[in-house]
Every structure is written in structure tokens, then in C-alpha cells.
Design brief:
Layout: E1 7-12, H1 15-23, E2 32-35, E3 39-42, H2 44-47, H3 57-63, E4 68-70, H4 74-91, E5 95-99, E6 102-106, H5 111-114, H6 117-132, E7 136-141, H7 144-154, E8 159-161, H8 167-171, H9 184-192, H10 198-203, H11 206-213, H12 215-225, E9 241-247, H13 255-275, E10 278-289, E11 294-305, H14 308-321, H15 323-329, E12 331-343, H16 359-372, E13 393-397
Parallel strand pairs: 2-4, 7-8
Antiparallel strand pairs: 1-6, 1-7, 2-3, 5-6, 9-12, 9-13, 10-11, 10-12
Subunit structure: Monomer.
Main location: cytoplasm
EC number: 2.7.7.7
Length: 398
């Protein structure tokens, strides 16, 4: 017998664009594009005209000439996210954040205190609308996968409950693209074999799906199609890396400009690292070129650190090593991840300790930014620069 539908997937609708419309009444009901060289987010009014995330702004303008383009305001989005997540945590102690604008919530066991999962979802949506001023879609189901699909189907600004006895009737008629992990390439492989719906995939033998898609991917997607997803809502998960990336659009950037963007990224990541009381041992640089190929470079330090200057120096060395490719092929995305995280309190210090290093400077700068905002103090190299450039930040991960 299947269990009760107690997992909520809460997903803010067109998050960045919704924040812009919330904060400026003149933008409400209008097609909004958030971005610089590329579309970082689009309102539903713009999406209805064919505008999609990661599309070039020039193409988006051709599809929607009356769109209003606004630069990203990451501090506003982060503040809105914190307000919404505070509501999540006030609803249940079992919250698994997926990104800046979505989370899973486990509400099983709250029936006596808060009502049924559907009733909890209704109140959650009302609170997010009233307290954060934002629309949110919620899916309620027995598993995380089904809850995520339900929230997507309910968009925009909807609520959908998938009852355990109605799971196959809900899922199997949907296109295979609704499965978690099916992108354009996988969808084409399935289509070429006559599989267009989730139900058709579920009818296959697992070995057939594995032969077409590869052992791991085939087994995973076949299990989802047959409603098998044992993953619980993970509330105590500690992530092994944090990262941030910027989409740069199609214009070419000099090595100096890329270095400044890299400085902005590492400066913010190092502060996040110290805020969580961690150090990192590995710096990873990711680049995407104009021909859509990607490159990843990494370096592991002799000892974990949370110092901005050390991390920035390593990141810059990785970027310098990619110099010939940058000038020849152009860079359309740059990202940095800090990996192999360790609790700062457990880090073994090297001797002799140099008390004239940048550790105390980092701490002082963090305190100023915490009190007066991230723009209160900046590096000399960034003075007079637009923090957004035409290189909007994409959603960060932790």
C-alpha cells in the first residue's frame, strides 16, 4: 500500500521577474526580461511570446519587441528568497532547499497541529503572497519527484495534489520531457524509438531503457516512470561545494574584463564561505565558449583556506592558463566553485602563522558588508564598474 502524499515542492513563479514586478507597479502585467547579454529570467507575459531563459537578449527582443529589460538585482532576489525560506521553516522543520527559489517540505506528522498536507500547502501559498508579495506554485505528492512534476504542471501560481491512488493516471500521459533529467538529447533518443509519453517509457523493460540511454540514466528514468523514488526530504544535508557563475552574452571580453568579473565572483563566494564557518581545499573554474564547448579547470591547495586573496589568486591562475582559448574562441559563461569544504574550526593551522596576512582584512570587510550592504566597500579594481556589467549572475548553488 502506498503512503500518504506528504511531500510539498514549492517553486516561486518566474522568481526574478516577479520580484521586479512586485517592486515596481509599472511593470505588473507587462512582459519583463531580466538580464544583460542573455535572458536570466522572463515574466510569464514574456514567456507567452516565446522568450526563454538563457536566450540571447537580441533574439528575445525580436520575439517580444515591447519587452521591458531590467538589469539583475541579486541583493533584492536574495532578500526575497530569505523571506520565503523563513516561511518554509516556520511551516515545518523539514525543509530541503533546492535553489534560491524552490524547496521540498516534508509535512507528514503535522496533521493534528496544522491539518492535511493540502491545507498546509494552501496556507503556505497564502503566506508567501501576503508576506513576501510573490506568487508560488506548490505540488503535493507522495514522493519528491511527483511533487516537483505537480508543481510544474500547476504553474503559474497554482496548487496540485497528486493522490497516491491517482499517480499513474497523472504521470503516464505526460510527455517524457517532464521526467527529472530528460533534456533535449535524451528526449530525441526516446522519440527516435517511438517513446513520447512517460507511460510508454514505463511499459518498456528496464534493460531496454538502459540500452538506449546508458545504464545509469536508463535505470533512473525507468524507475521514475514506474513511480519509484525513495529519496527522502534531506534536511541535514551538508553540501560539499558552493559556487556562482555569470552568463556573458555574445560580446567579446578582454582578459582584464574577465579578471574583474572573476574578482566579483570569488569575492562573494569567499564571504559566503566564511559566513558558514567553512574553508575550502579545491578551486574549480568553469568556462563556456562561443562555440558552446565547455572547459573545467581545478586546483587543490596544500591546506584548506577561507582567505579571499588566496582563492582569487588560484582562480586567476586557472583563468590565465586558459588564455589562448579565451582569445580565440570567446567566453560566454564563467563560473567558480569552491569544493572540498571543511569546518573552519577543524582546520589545522600551518606554522609559522603570519598574523599580517589578509585574514583580519577579510573579517573586517565581511562585517562592513553585513551591516551596510555588499556595495558599501569594494575592491579598487572594481571602482566605477557596474556590479552587474552585462554579465548577469545565474542562480548560485550551495
Amino acid at each position: 500500500m502506498r503512503g500518504e502524499a506528504t511531500v510539498l515542492h514549492a517553486d516561486l513563479d518566474a522568481f526574478y521577474a516577479s520580484v521586479e514586478q512586485r517592486d515596481d507597479s509599472a511593470l505588473r502585467g507587462r512582459p519583463i526580461i531580466v538580464g544583460g547579454g542573455v535572458v536570466v529570467a522572463a515574466s510569464y507575459e514574456a514567456k507567452a511570446r516565446g522568450v526563454r531563459t538563457a536566450m540571447g537578449v537580441q533574439r528575445a527582443r525580436a520575439l517580444c519587441p515591447d519587452a521591458i529589460i531590467v538589469p539583475p538585482r541579486m541583493e533584492a532576489y536574495s532578500a526575497a528568497s530569505r523571506a520565503v525560506f523563513a516561511i518554509f521553516h516556520d511551516t515545518t522543520p523539514h525543509v530541503e532547499g533546492v535553489s534560491i527559489d524552490e524547496a521540498f517540505l516534508e509535512v507528514g506528522g503535522l496533521r493534528r497541529l496544522a491539518g492535511t498536507p493540502e491545507e498546509i500547502a494552501v496556507r503556505l501559498r497564502e503566506r508567501v503572497r501576503a508576506e513576501a508579495g510573490l506568487p508560488i506554485s506548490v505540488g503535493v505528492a507522495r514522493t519528491k519527484f511527483l511533487a516537483k512534476v505537480a508543481s510544474a504542471v500547476s504553474k503559474p501560481d497554482g496548487l496540485l495534489l497528486v493522490r497516491p491512488d491517482h499517480e499513474e493516471a497523472f504521470l503516464h500521459p505526460l510527455p517524457v520531457e517532464r521526467l527529472w533529467g530528460v533534456g533535449a538529447v535524451t528526449a530525441e533518443k526516446l522519440h527516435s524509438n517511438g517513446v513520447y509519453t512517460v507511460g510508454q517509457l514505463a511499459e518498456l523493460e528496464a534493460a531496454t531503457a538502459e540500452r538506449w540511454l546508458g545504464k545509469a540514466a536508463g535505470a533512473h528514468l525507468h524507475a521514475l516512470a514506474r513511480l519509484r523514488d525513495p529519496r527522502p526530504v534531506a534536511t541535514t544535508k551538508r553540501h560539499g561545494s558552493i559556487g556562482s557563475q555569470r552568463a556573458l552574452g555574445n560580446r567579446s571580453y578582454t582578459a582584464g574584463e574577465l579578471g574583474l568579473i572573476l574578482t566579483q565572483i570569488v569575492d562573494g563566494l569567499a564571504k559566503r564561505l566564511r559566513d558558514r564557518g567553512s574553508s575550502c581545499a579545491t578551486v574549480v573554474l568553469r568556462l563556456r565558449y562561443g562555440d558552446f564547448t565547455k572547459a573545467t579547470r581545478s586546483r587543490t591547495l596544500a591546506a584548506p583556506t577561507d582567505r579571499t586573496e588566496v582563492l582569487l589568486g588560484v582562480a586567476q591562475q586557472l583563468l590565465d592558463a586558459a588564455g589562448p582559448d579565451i582569445s580565440g574562441r570567446g567566453v560566454t559563461l564563467i563560473g567558480v566553485s569552491l569544493a572540498q569544504l571543511t569546518s573552519a574550526g577543524r582546520m589545522q593551522l600551518e606554522l609559522p602563522i603570519d598574523w599580517h596576512d589578509g585574514a583580519r582584512i577579510d573579517t573586517a570587510l565581511d562585517a562592513v558588508r553585513d551591516r551596510f550592504g555588499s556595495a558599501a566597500v569594494t575592491r579598487a579594481a572594481l571602482i566605477g564598474r557596474d556590479p552587474g556589467w552585462s554579465a548577469p549572475r545565474l542562480p548560485e548553488h550551495e
